[in-house]
Each structure stands twice: as C-alpha cells, then as structure tokens.
Amino acid sequence: MIVSTINVNGIRAAVKQRSADNHGLLRWFEETSADVVCLQETRADDDQLADALSPVLDGGWHLASAQPHIKGRNGVAVLSRTPFDGIRTGCGAEEFALHGRYLEVDVEVGTADLTVASVYFPTGEAGTDRQPEKERFMAAVAGRMAALMSRSVAAGRESVLCGDWNIAHTENDIKNWRGNIKKAGFLPQERQWLTDLLAVGWVDVVRQKHPGTAGPYAWWSWRGRAFDNDAGWRIDYQLATPGLAARVAGAGTERPAAYGLRWSDHAPVTVHYA
After folding, report:
1. Does the CA dihedral 219-222-223-228 come out positive or negative?
2. Beta bridge partners of 138
C-alpha cells in the first residue's frame, strides 16, 4: 500500500503545463504507484475540482473532497484507486466545519482497512489573530487524533493523517531555523504540540525512516534560489498509528529534478506501507 500527500497550491494551476515537458499533476497521476493520494489547498469548489481532475477520474480513481468556505482558499481532497467505505468532513470543531481543512475517509487497500485524513493547517502569524485561530485548529485536530488513537488501541483499526501541517518540528525540519525561531511554523508552542502528539503514540513515519538528518524537505519558496539551494521546510507529514507505522518499508519526498519541473511549491511525500 502506497500513500502520497501533496499541497497542490491550486488545483487548476497544478494541472496546467508548467514546463516545456508538460510536467504537471496529471502527468504525476499517470506515473504514480500510489493507492491513495491526499491533496491540500485545492482552492476550488467540489465541481471545479472534479472538472480539473476529470482525466484522473476517467482513469478509475475515486474522489472525496471538502471545498473551502471562502472562494480561492483552502480545500482538501482524497483520491483512491478503490471505493470509499466512509467519508467525513471536519475534525469535530464547529468553527472549522466548513473551512475545507479536514477530510477523513475509510478505504480498503489490499488487506488493509484504513482511515486516511487529508489535513491543511492554517499558516498562522505570530502576534496577530491568525495565530490563535491556527492553535484552535491544532487543538481540534488533536482531539480527533485522540479518538482515532483510542480506536486503534481498542479495535485495531489503523489511521494516518496526511497533509500540510505548516509546522517544522525540529531544527532538522527547516534549513534556516535560526531565522525563524519567532515566526509562525517554528514557534515553541507549535513544535511542542507536535512533540506531544508523538509522545502519545503517533509516528512521524518519514522521520522514522530518516532519523537525525536534515530534511527531506517538501516545501521551498518560489522566490530566489531556495529550491536550487535546498533551503526548504519539512512541513508535510504523514502521522500514523503505531501498528501502521510498523509496516513502513520506505518513505520520502518526490523532489523534482529541477526548478522548472515544479508544479507546486510543495513536493509529494510518499510512504510505502508493507
């Protein structure tokens, strides 16, 4: 079973040609071996998303989506090669129910009966109202994760939350960590929140396969030479329950070979579960 997650930075832009070789999201879907794909920041309503992905859906993929409440913002989706057994939007907090930031599906892949969530955390901004909003969303997601972990312990049903968490957990997860200590995405309380999730059993499966090393980064600014210098952030995660994490055979970032081959400012994070 292979699960990929990618912030597409606008679905309609991601499916368009962004290089002379037509490297875009549709080409990526033609070539991927993933069984389940989580998308974030689609910036499209459900109809626009289905239209942009029509070649993928015509190829047999199944789509679940949560559209944003503000035009051109947010939006998450999950695509699967097999039909969904259940679809749920929102993480349990009324404030964010219609924001298009959390989508959860039940899907059977091979012998695995799994819950997969696509999640897109607010960016936040230190010293403004945007940061408390981000932290309220963090608290809501943590509550849902506690319920999923309890279900894993009691019933053995495994879960994985995939997406753009907009938090670099450690100094190994951001190239310029010294310059971002007081900025959203690397604030002490955000990093501690992730530490607390790991302490109760959730596993950062990419870090599990790449311990003690810088990266692998999955986001680089479009500006300057950030991509060429690999001055990135690792803010895209797959956090899995322990039983699923124990099955990880490989995990990493699908970093494009060159700047001109990028179709998002993020790169897919792909995990192979044996």
Report:
1. positive
2. none
* Cα separation, 228 vs 30, whole angstroms: 26
Between CA 176 and CA 132 the distance in angstroms is: 24
- Strand 158-164 relative to strand 84-89, pairing: unpaired
- Our measurement of the distance from residue 253's CA atom to the centroid of its chain's CA atoms, rounded to an integer in Å, reads 12
CATH topology of domain 2-273: Deoxyribonuclease I; Chain A (3.60.10)
Cα separation, 112 vs 156, whole angstroms: 11
**From the centroid of its chain, how far is CA 38?**
6
Question: What is the tens place of the pLDDT at every residue in 174-225?
Answer: 999 999 999 999 999 999 999 999 999 999 999 999 999 999 999 999 999 9
Residues 6+ apart with CB under 8 A from 10: 41, 42, 43, 44
Describe the crossing of helices 130-155 and 188-199 by its angle, rounded to 10 degrees. 10
Angle at 151 between CA 146 and CA 157, to 5 degrees: 125
| Residue spans per domain, the chain | 2-273
Yes or no: say if 169 and 204 are a contact pair by the CB < 8 Å rule: yes
